[in-house]
Request: fold
Amino acid sequence: LQHKIEHQQALNVVGQMAASIAHEIRNPLTSLKGFTELLKLKADEESRMYLSVIDSELQRMEQILSELLVLSKPTSMKVELIELDLIVKQVIEFMLPDALMKKIMIQYISSSTQVYIGGNENRLKQVFMNLIKNAMESMHNGGTITVEMNIIDCAIVELKVKDEGSGMDSKTIQNLFQPFYTTKSTGTGLGLAFVKKVIEEHEGVIGVNSEIQKGTCFHMQFPIYTFNQIDSLEVSTKDSAYLV
Ligand code: ADP
Ligand code: MG
Reply:
């Protein structure tokens, strides 16, 4: 319980900061992105290379900002029917070029397609991206990341992200979901706090197994939406568009 209270208190601090910081930074960031695009049209090849670095750094800033925003309370999100299999595949495809450069293979094992959960596509994608990114950052000598989807019973789907990386000591395992907890020199410590919050918003749970030098496995479970719930979900999203 103490742990939970500390988690909540830390989130409140993040929330207050995020609200003010986000407003101040979002707008100039958007204009920087716009002018970077314009510059690209005029730039020669060398300058275009620099501009694409600027672009990806701006994107990183935007991502940190959006994680801070979600961690700030209260949040609302648009809820839709999500085909889990599909968005997992899209995220893997998106991450693959980066992974291959680090000699990392991403393997996807799925026992079934057309499994639906209720949720927000962008946030869920961000969740899977954060988990795969962490997995990649733990594998300094290449290897394989395995993403696995299994139906537990007709009501629950399980998703695992397993790496062959450095693993974690017990102190890290205890703290990894705390906002700002990081063991990396350039880490924000926001990734997994965001992951946990979003998964809980989706009525899901997340847990972790890890062994030093062997690797880490994050496992999540989500409720599967049946056709009855699909109907009611469609009605409720039409009525209110947003669920808080
Ligand atoms: P960041 O990646 O910015 O450090 P995160 O919240 O994503 O923040 O992760 C918190 C910490 O949890 C990391 O700094 C790292 O120590 C640990 N961690 C998370 N995922 C893994 C993993 N797959 N393997 C090893 N350590 C991990
Ligand atoms: Mg991270």
About this structure: The pocket of magnesium ion (ligand 2) is lined by residues 130, 133-134, 191 (CB under 6 Å). The radius of gyration is 19 Å. Confidence is low (pLDDT under 50) at residues 234-244.
